[in-house]
């Protein structure tokens, strides 16, 4: 069997030396993978329990058209999400185009002129910068700034933890929302655990219990057995082409949390007064239900892949955040590759390993919402789905690549081998 497996990897372009090194590393991860599977099992039962509780049936899998009034499939799906996340309410819609859009409706729906938004995890992900209007020297039409909403941020400490003294000093009478970004974005910092997020929320609420605490939960769902909504988050926001879509949902996003916050987000997504009552689901309900059902297992595969990637690239001498032994709080693995050529080669390997568009060569390119060229590798069944095997990176120092996703562990394993293969072929590693 090993001989046959080695042969097919060789046929797929993996040098025998690379195969042997990676296979040895994989064999040493069995205990770590068992722990990941235990988390996945717990989360799978949590999802199944919610679907059983709300008596999901064949009738819920069909869609609606027109206004979408009395769409029992859509409405029950939102009840299932609220139950899974232990929240009062949920907004789960195909009309939410991406995670950035979900965050936008959560912010615009709950902020008013004169309010202030405070990010306590440093500058948010690149695509939110112009939505907020952070750069006062740049024209940002339609931004929060244009609507008279203020902005402030505090940085994380050098170890990646919250700077509570700075948070206390930044909160004022206008502070309406405190936002926390769980994942690292394009920063080489540790992602935040749900426990850490809960401690920060408790601290903020001790200063002013009326402040809305919002968590950007992208890439973090089902990595732990609890979610930010379990530890006091008033809104928890994410994308369905990441973890909770299970690689099956073709689009969409979600906001879960307190009912008043969800209603406000829904009024922004549709219209005031109509809110959640409208929005046809067409024929998408089935993929949303199946996606959330598959999500714990698919997320576990992605986490295994991230651990494997760290173990391989650490052995090759590169800095990995988190490292191979650290606990996981999202599916992102960053690898600091030190130069642009290595970043490009890594992404070429991930693209070459894809089931779709494996023949395509990714190149750095100006992308909307980013301040430098970005390279993205994702030969995915759902365009841009980062729960599928993918990697992306800004082409700027420290030249870190951000790897994530993988519907099956076996595919992730091959993808990492192929990324090493491309670096080897270009003479970037020995």
Descriptive notes:
With about 425 residues, the chain is α/β, with parallel strands linked by helices. Helix content is about 40%, strand content about 15%. The chain has a 7-stranded mixed beta sheet with strand order 1-7-6-5-4-2-3, with helices on both faces. Helix 3 packs across helix 4 and helix 5 crosses helix 9. The protein is globular. It starts with a helix and ends in a 5-residue tail after the last helix. The mean pLDDT is about 95.
Characteristics of this structure?
430 residues, 14% strand, 7-stranded mixed sheet, alpha/beta, 6-stranded antiparallel sheet, globular, 13 strands, 12 helices
Describe how the helices and strands are arranged.
Elements: H1 2-11, H2 16-27, H3 30-53, H4 72-84, E1 89-93, H5 99-110, E2 116-119, H6 129-132, E3 150-153, H7 164-170, E4 175-181, H8 194-207, E5 212-216, E6 235-239, E7 253-257, H9 259-269, H10 285-315, E8 319-321, E9 333-336, H11 340-352, E10 365-366, E11 373-377, E12 390-394, E13 400-404, H12 409-425
Helix pairs in contact: 3-4, 3-10, 5-9, 10-12, 11-12
């Amino acid at each position: 069997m090993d001989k046959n497996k080695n042969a097919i990897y060789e046929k797929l372009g993996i040098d025998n030396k690379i195969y042997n090194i990676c296979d040895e590393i994989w064999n040493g991860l069995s205990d770590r993978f068992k722990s990941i599977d235990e988390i996945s099992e717990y989360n799978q039962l949590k999802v199944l329990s919610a679907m059983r509780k709300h008596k999901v049936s064949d009738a819920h899998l069909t869609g609606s058209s027109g206004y979408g009034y009395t769409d029992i499939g859509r409405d029950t799906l939102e009840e299932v999400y609220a139950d899974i996340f232990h929240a009062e309410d949920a907004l789960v819609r195909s009309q939410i185009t991406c995670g950035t859009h979900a965050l936008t409706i959560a912010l615009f729906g709950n902020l008013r002129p004169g309010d202030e938004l405070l990010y306590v995890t440093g500058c948010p992900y690149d695509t939110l910068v112009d939505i907020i209007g952070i750069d006062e020297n740049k024209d940002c039409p339609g931004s929060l700034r244009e609507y008279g909403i203020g902005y402030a941020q505090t940085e994380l400490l050098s170890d990646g933890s919250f700077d509570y003294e700075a948070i206390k000093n930044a909160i004022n009478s206008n502070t309406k929302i405190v936002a926390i970004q769980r994942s690292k974005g394009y920063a080489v910092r540790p992602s935040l655990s749900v426990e850490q997020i809960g401690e920060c929320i408790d601290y903020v609420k001790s200063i002013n219990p009326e402040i809305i605490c919002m968590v950007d939960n992208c890439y973090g769902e089902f990595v732990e057995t609890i979610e930010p909504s379990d530890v006091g988050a008033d809104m928890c926001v994410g994308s369905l082409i990441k973890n909770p879509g299970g690689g099956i949902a073709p689009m969409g996003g979600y906001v879960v949390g307190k009912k008043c916050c969800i209603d406000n987000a829904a009024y922004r997504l549709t219209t005031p007064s109509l809110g959640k009552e409208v929005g046809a689901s067409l024929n998408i309900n089935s993929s949303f239900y199946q996606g959330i059902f598959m999500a714990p297992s698919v997320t576990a595969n992605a986490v295994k892949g991230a651990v494997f990637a760290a173990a391989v690239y650490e052995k090759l001498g590169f800095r990995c955040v988190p490292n191979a032994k650290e606990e996981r709080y999202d599916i992102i693995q960053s690898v600091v590759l030190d130069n642009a050529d290595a970043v490009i080669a890594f992404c070429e390997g991930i693209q070459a390993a894809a089931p779709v568009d494996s023949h395509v060569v990714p190149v750095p390119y100006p992308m909307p919402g980013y301040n430098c060229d970005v390279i993205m590798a994702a030969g995915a069944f759902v365009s841009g789905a980062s729960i599928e095997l993918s990697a992306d990176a800004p082409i700027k120092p420290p030249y870190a690549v951000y790897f994530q996703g993988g519907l099956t562990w076996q595919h992730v394993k091959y993808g990492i081998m192929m990324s090493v293969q491309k670096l080897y072929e270009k003479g970037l590693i020995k």
